[in-house]
Amino acid sequence: MTACSPSDQSEPQVKEPIAVLSALPLFWAEGDPELAFSQETQTAPIIDALRRRFDVQPIDLVTLKNLKSFRLLMLAQPTALSPQELVVLDEWVLAGGRVVIFADPQLEWPSLYGLGDPRRAPPVTLLDPLFTHWKVTMTAAGADTHEHEAAGENHLMGEAISTNAPGRWTTQSNACELADDGLRASCRIGKGRAELVADADLLDEASRLEEGGSNAGAILALVESLAKGLPPVVAQPNQDQKKNKRELVGRDDSNLREKEASGP
Questions:
Q1: Which of 68, 77, 72 is nearest to 22 (CA)?
Q2: What percent of the chain has pLDDT over 70?
Q3: Is the dihedral of CA 21, 194, 214, 148 positive or negative?
Q4: CATH number at residue 18
Q5: Continuous segment of H or E residues that includes residue 179
Q6: pLDDT over 70 at 261, yes or no
Q7: What is the mean pLDDT of the chain?
Q8: Torsion, CA 234, CA 235, CA 239, CA 240, rounded to 10
């Protein structure tokens, strides 16, 4: 019986990590101050759906420290990013990072907090400086919006979705392509990639489920397309695994030396 070498053993794969920065209540429930200080979490249904495929991790700032462990990032109607955060984000994407941004020009996400309350997600996207830098522009739904679009009948990744008053993209960059009737812009930024969606209400999966529908499939398809082509993540061995591996290799070496010493 021959022992398997370490190279013969397949490394276990783990879920691709994705960082999420959002002012929407995706990782907590509104109106429960005790829950905010407890160990319990109440994640939104869309986060639960994403976690079936990805290792979803919330972050609170765009910094090199926070992004260094991630190849994927999701921004969902965040509060305004500082100039330093915008620079870090742009450089991270230029270096090969991949980001999906859900930016809403007219957010209608239900909230217990009144307009102007800092605990509430911004009613309009605050990422215009970044979009201007990437040469894309979002326009809100206006008088020229088709009736079916205003009613929430839109498409993302070719799938029908339900949402409220989404925006539309235009671009002056050859590195960006528009898709889904302008609801989505796909941009090559240096070595990285950005998928921009002119809506954030579509992430409100709880409301969609109450209406008997779901946007999770289209959202998951978008994030999966962003991750396509990335080398698989391999689980890092813990200390006990490393010790067992050294002991196994050591025993194999000892057996070989004994056989060589004893001769044929």
A1: 77
A2: 75
A3: positive
A4: 3.40.50
A5: strand 176-179
A6: no
A7: 84
A8: -110
- Judge whether 91 lies within some domain: yes
Contacts 24+ apart (CB under 8 A), 59-62: 59/19, 59/20, 59/21, 60/21, 61/21, 61/85, 62/21, 62/86, 62/88, 62/89, 62/92
Residue 232: pLDDT over 80: yes
Side chain identity, residue 99 = V
Q: Write down the residue that tokens 């812009």 correspond to.
A: 185
Number of domains in the chain: 2
On whether both 192 and 256 belong to a single domain, the answer is no
Q: Which amino acid makes up residue 136?
A: V
CA separation for the pair 158, 5 (Å, rounded): 46
260 φ/ψ angles, rounded to the nearest 5 degrees? -65, -35
Kindly report, residue by residue over 10-33, the tens digit of the pLDDT.
556 789 999 999 999 999 877 755
The verdict on residue 32 lying in a domain is: yes
